Amino acid sequence: MLTKFQKVFFIFWASIQPMTTTVKENYLKALYFLDQEDSKINVTELSKRLDVSKPTASSMIKSLKERGWVKHERYRPIRLTAKGRKAAALIIRKHRLTEMFLHKVMGFGWEEVHAIAEQMEHIDSDKLFTRMDEMLDHPVVDPHGSPIPDQQGQVIQQKLQKITELVPGQRGKLTALSQSSSELLHYLNGCRIELGTIIQLVKIEAFDGSCSISCNGQSPITVSKKVAESLLIAVS
Hints:
By secondary structure, the chain is α+β, with helices and mostly antiparallel strands. Helices cover 45% and strands 14% of the residues. It has 2 domains: 1-157, Winged helix-like DNA-binding domain superfamily/Winged helix DNA-binding domain (Arc Repressor Mutant, subunit A, Orthogonal Bundle), CATH 1.10.10.10; 161-235, SH3 type barrels (Roll), CATH 2.30.30.
C-alpha cells in the first residue's frame, strides 16, 4: 500500500518522466548487478531478473546497444561498456542518495525507503541530487550500508565478512547488509539489530547453519543461516 506521500510523488514523477527512459534504466541497472555476480550475462538471466519474456529482453538489449551501453553478439554474453557501467552506477547513486535523504532528513525507516527511491532514481536533475549530497555531507553508504557511487560512477568497496565466516568469539560492527528486502529489515527491527550494532558470533549450529549471536553484549539470540549470511561485519 502506497503512502500519501508516495502517491503524490508518483503522480508528479510519472507526469515528467518518459516511460521508455525508465524501462531502459531499469534494464541497465539489472545488468550492472548481474555483472557483479557473473561477468557472463545472457538474455535468459536478464529476462528472469526483470520478469519479462526473452524476446522482450532481446529487443531492449538491441536498444541499449544502440546507445553504446552494452556489447552483444548472437550466442555471446551481454557485456556492459564503460559508458554503460558508468550510466548504471549513476542511477544507483541517485537511488542510494535518495534512500539516505529519506532516512536521515525525512525520518523514514530503513525498511521504507527502497520503494520511493525506485521512483526517484529516474528523475533527470543533477542539481537535485547534488543538493541532496551536500545536505547529507557527502555520504559514502546508504541506510543499508551499500556503497554510494561517486559522481564519476566509482565505488569504494569495504572489506567485510558475513557472520557465517567468523569463528566463535569473533566480534565486529554491523556495517552493511548483503541484501535488504523489506522482510529482512522488518525482522532485524524486531531483533533491534541496526547498522552499528556490535555483533559477536557465539556458535554456528552444525545441523542447519543457524547462528547464536550476541548483540551489543546482550544475551545471545538465534538467527537463521539466511539471516546470518545477510549481516556483513567489519571485524574489530
